[in-house]
Amino acid sequence: MTKTLEAALEYADRGWSVIPIRAGTKLPAISWKEYQLRQPTEDEIYKWFENTNNDIAIICGTISNLIVVDTDDAEATKLAAKNGWDKTPYRVKTRKGFHFYFSTEHKVRKGKLAEKIDLQAEASYVLAPPSKDKIFSPLEGCDAEDLPAYPGPKP
Length: 155
Prior knowledge:
By secondary structure, the protein is of the alpha+beta class. Helix content is 18%, strand content 25%. The protein contains three helices and nine strands; from the N terminus they run αβαββαββββββ. Strand 6 and strand 7 (117-120) form a beta hairpin. It is globular and about 40 Å long.
């Protein structure tokens, strides 16, 4: 079993809607609109990630009960910390900044929180580990299974 397939199955077990991404890009390998409304089946996950080089993305919003604060550089990451938008155990180091994962039960539009800080929510997705340049970087002493509710403002 590849690391990406293993991650996709784990994310699906968490209730997150996953999609395949063309390796080394941010482009979906499939038409992904329907997965904003329904979870992929286990058969689809195997088809997308077994014996392929696809990367993986998680669809944000109510389908996954997930919102991600996305910082694009060190300064933006400091601003996120100052506002408490980094207080989550599930963090992913990206090439330029971080993704901070939060739970949500509400429909929230994606948008800008500040310069170089985006809120990934309805109708958006984030590349996830083990995709290229995505590294799980948990907050020390926290349980990654227990995501806090998103504490920040709406865009």
